[in-house]
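Consider the tokenized backbone below.
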């Protein structure tokens, strides 16, 4: 065997040994999570479903607030959506009109009503609300709470397909993880480009994956805190 062939042969052996070492370095639970992430951000709902438990739950990043989403329509503040986790879920409803916040009239041009639901846990809030289906007026009194919305597998699959459709290209960078028993903590940076745009979009996150020890599927994902959420609480403090 001549020297070039010997060199090529040993190069192949070295590459194969590196790949074998990487596969050995990842246990089965870690491999499942990495495959899950790859399928998730490519919008492969079929693969994500095959790697998920039937009782899969995705816990969104927790935040402090009232659990309602609002929008302005003709200088009126309308409740667009309300989370089932909201302390006001049984008292406020979609399309209700918010007239006052903490006894101040609501106006799109009043800086005091911008981001009114930010602040620390326990911050008091009073709302004067007009019902969407009548002229009745009600007053809500409560406090901001720690809210973590969740999705079942069907909702999660819909979301990952909608998200993937927005991007021409995307990739994960700086992926780090460690595992303990049936939990794997993973951090990563996501970067994506929209079709026809040269700019990049990005976010960073930390998630905790719980693996079903029996069938080795993803049972739940807990998305964790970010610095912005703490800043929002500080800015909204009384």
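A designed sequence for it:
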């Amino acid at each position: 065997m001549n020297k070039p062939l010997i060199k090529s042969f040993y190069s192949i052996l070295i590459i194969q040994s590196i790949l074998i070492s990487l596969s050995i370095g990842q246990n089965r639970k870690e491999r499942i999570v990495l495959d899950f992430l790859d399928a998730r951000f490519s919008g492969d709902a079929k693969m994500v479903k095959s790697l998920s438990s039937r009782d899969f739950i995705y816990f969104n990043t927790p935040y402090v607030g009232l659990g309602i989403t609002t929008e302005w329509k003709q200088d009126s503040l309308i409740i667009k959506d309300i989370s089932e986790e909201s302390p006001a879920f049984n008292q406020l409803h979609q399309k209700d009109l918010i007239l006052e916040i903490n006894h101040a009239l609501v106006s799109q041009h009043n800086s005091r009503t911008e981001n009114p639901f930010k602040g620390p846990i326990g911050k008091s809030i009073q709302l004067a609300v007009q019902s969407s289906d009548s002229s009745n007026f009600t007053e809500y009194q409560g406090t901001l709470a720690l809210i973590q919305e969740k999705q079942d597998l069907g909702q999660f699959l819909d979301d990952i397909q909608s998200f993937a459709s927005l991007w021409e290209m995307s990739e994960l960078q700086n992926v780090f993880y460690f595992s303990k028993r049936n939990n794997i903590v993973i951090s990563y940076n996501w970067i994506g480009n929209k079709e026809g745009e040269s700019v990049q979009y990005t976010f960073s996150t930390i998630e905790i994956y719980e693996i079903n020890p029996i069938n080795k599927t993803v049972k739940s994902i807990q998305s964790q805190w970010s610095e912005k959420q703490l800043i929002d609480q500080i800015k909204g403090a009384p």
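Helices lie at 3-25, 28-42, 45-50, 153-164, 227-235.
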